[in-house]
Amino acid sequence: MLRKAEEVQIPSVRAKPLTLYVGLGGSGIAGDMLAGLGLPVVVWRQPNYPTWLKEATLVAVSYSGETSETLQVVSGALEAGAQIIALTSGGRVEKLSKERNIPLIKVPSGLPPRLAFPYLLIPLLRLLNESYSAGIRVEDFREGAERTKEENFRRAKEVATSIYGKIPVIYGSKFLAIAKRMKQQINENAKYPAFYGEVPEIHHNEVEGYARAFPLQPVLIKGGTADEVTAKLLNPIVLEPPTGTLLQQFGALTHLVDLISLYLAEILKEDPYTLWVIPKARELTASLFR
Fold first, then answer.
1. Among this protein's residues, is 282 annotated catalytic?
2. Which InterPro entries match (predicted)?
3. Is 150 in the active site?
4. Residue 208 resides in a domain
């Protein structure tokens, strides 16, 4: 899938100096990773269009093409006359893009958004890499995941076993996007509670909660100097990035945390593909905007 994602056709369009990335759930985390790579990306997860950012290029990402909140933002951007680029596998986002001549990145359909992650990240990374002359070697994401594959399988089993029976709280600074990804994957694949927090902000509030013996399991995605404080305060499970470029590290860590969620699902005898509550949430949200 990673190689196929590198081959997805992207439109011949250049983003403006700032990109406003709109996406939720599995379609949203790619925006956090793009920002984490140092690209000029602001991630927006609200259903209203921020008119004060109308000079930015709006990148609307909805794998299904049916995300109500994203469609609301696109509607507002069209009214404001903003530049829009869309990424989807179909649905109303594709239909609207064709009707309004919005540049479209069309990706293969039929996957859960969280499994389609390479198709959400890599084509946009290619487009923004060219727009901003960032000099990022896009293949590094795939190579990072492939290079650490065997060690990731071993480590993932170990971490999933340690998490089982406790509530994981995942922390990150440089790799905050990975902390969010791990939280989402555990929620959806394992049907298990998980939360995330940002370093160093948690040093000013959240760490005090560990004074009581709640059944929490802190996990630290290590990457910045402030993470050393988190490690000393909370004695977390530490996930270290391998050596390599930043994008290689993102690739390796994404693969690792995805595996952790799948092994936890296996321990819990949960089907990673089945969703029980999220479809109802989508239905209720869609009714708000009819």
1. yes
2. Glu6P/Mann6P_isomerase_C, SIS_dom, SIS_dom_sf
3. no
4. yes
What confidence tens digit (pLDDT) does each residue in 169-219 have? 999 999 999 999 999 999 999 999 999 999 999 999 999 999 988 999 999
Residue 240 resides in a domain:
yes
pLDDT tens for each residue of 266-281: 999 999 999 999 999 9
Would residue 203 show up in a list of annotated catalytic residues for this protein? Answer: no
Place of tokens 């909660």: 209
Residue 276 included in any domain: no
The 3-state DSSP class for residue 257 equals: helix
> Which entry of 99, 204, 212, 290 is annotated as an active-site residue?
204
User: Who has greater pLDDT, 288 or 217?
Assistant: 217
Reading the block at residue 277, the tokens are: 């509550």
| Shared domain check, 29 and 114 | yes
Supply the DSSP symbol for 1: -
Query: Which residue range is the domain that position 72 belongs to?
Result: 2-131
Long-range pairs for 92-95: beta carbons < 8 A, 24 or more residues apart: 92/65, 92/66, 93/60, 93/62, 93/65, 93/66, 93/67, 94/65, 95/65
Q: What is the pLDDT of residue 289?
A: 84
At 1 the pLDDT is 81
